[in-house]
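Troubleshooting log. The previous structure file for this entry was overwritten by mistake, so regenerating from the original sequence record. Sequence copied from the archived sheet and checked twice against the printout by T.R.
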Amino acid sequence: MSDWTDGYVAEIDYTHGFYRELTPAHLRFCLLSRGLRAPEEDAGVSYCELGFGQGVTLNIVAATHPLASVWGTDFNPSHAAAARQLSLDGGTANTAFGDDSFEEFLAREDLPTFDFIVLHGIYSWISAENRAVIGRFLRRRLKVGGVVYISYNTLPGWAAIMPLRALMIDHAKAERAGMTERVDKALAFARTLAEGKAGYFTANPAVAPRLEKMATMSRNYLAHEYFNRDWTPLYHADVVRELTAAKLSFAASAHVTDLIDVVALSAPGREMLAAVNDPLFRETLRDYIVNQQFRRDIFTRGALRLTPLEQIEGLRAQRLALIVPRATIPEKATFPIGTTDLKPEIYGPFFDRLDKGPITLADLAAAEPALAPLPLATLHQAALVAISQGWVAPCPEAAGEGARRKATKRFNAAVLERARRSADLTVLASPVLGGGLGVDRIQQLFLLARAEKHPDPASFVWGILSSQGQRLVKEGKPLEDVDQNMAELRLRAQTFTDSFLPLYDRLGIV
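Regenerated output below.
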């Protein structure tokens, strides 16, 4: 009898994560930034996620694209059931979830062809045979001109850490406890070796800090990240070669930092890249320069290059939205090579105008006299920097936003109701973004209090938390006293009202 898990951890469920890079708006923006054409924004778009985990991203894509056809599979029936329940609760009727293996999904005859096929956190964690099945699926089910997002652990960034993972998984195999306990014991064993100055740790000084960071992470995440049977960091060039049979070509990185070498790389690094003519080797060389550990690649099937005028028109029409309170944006941006000062004469008016609501680059320049004389390339770079830092997000066109608002309103109502009993889902759908926005449980409960017209949001939230034996945590310590919890909730409620509620309103969340 075959093992349906195929070596993948299924004993405990994966985390509830939303990944903005998987959304059509983000993928289109990255392709536009590279001068490539993406599938049009129309009602008939078709979207598929392979290995959707808890189905959070897939459901949010469905809620923010109510006329799209959204499909997905995850071999773990617990994941598929959770995704389907979220769909039922949130009213995303345009979804089709299954628990097929990749091979079973490939064999199905009822699937459409897709404009977008996405895989996040899958490709490095499956066997070579399953990667080949995925390649055949992409060949069969991706439309001409379609887009594939695929993320994976990569080399050389993982080279020093690979022995640590091998050590922990061998230790876990020797244990007979449950998965969570095996993860804890493997971490403790590795830390004992590190503290004992074992030669591997002294020869690889970057490993001990990674181990310390792992100790703070969710055990569910660690089990799926490190303890599968199959775990293969891949060179970018090898992934490109594997996907050639599916008629796919590498188009761009979905990690926006990778699109702005002028601020993300040192001058010597940029000079080395500029001297390389072969695009495949140039991308591999870039991974060595930054010691890349994780890639987020966009592939296309028959991508068309935009003319310079088409790219200019596309960038001018690109809509952007601020996704954090204006006051929280610092005066510096952080990149792998260090921090970069943001020119106040550019970024000041740039963020000030975005703080008033979503706007296209063309209208942004027209609305701000200080930005009007600037070349479009400068505004584009400012957008890239802001997106790379998580302050701004690209948005779909305003057309169709009314339909998106109706769909996201029902979905968000279900998420807020869920927040009464659980903190697992910390994202809400935005019709403006065409995707999700991280919103923690406390703020979700403030939104729920507002929806129910409760006169005292802090008391409302405390009633829910205290009834479940829960307390707030401040500076790493739980607040046990009722008065302390209420005081902290009132502070958070004021911050929510002053800074976050206007933001959520601009993004169509309230």
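The CA atoms of residues 169 and 227 lie 6 Å apart. Archived copy saved in two places this time.
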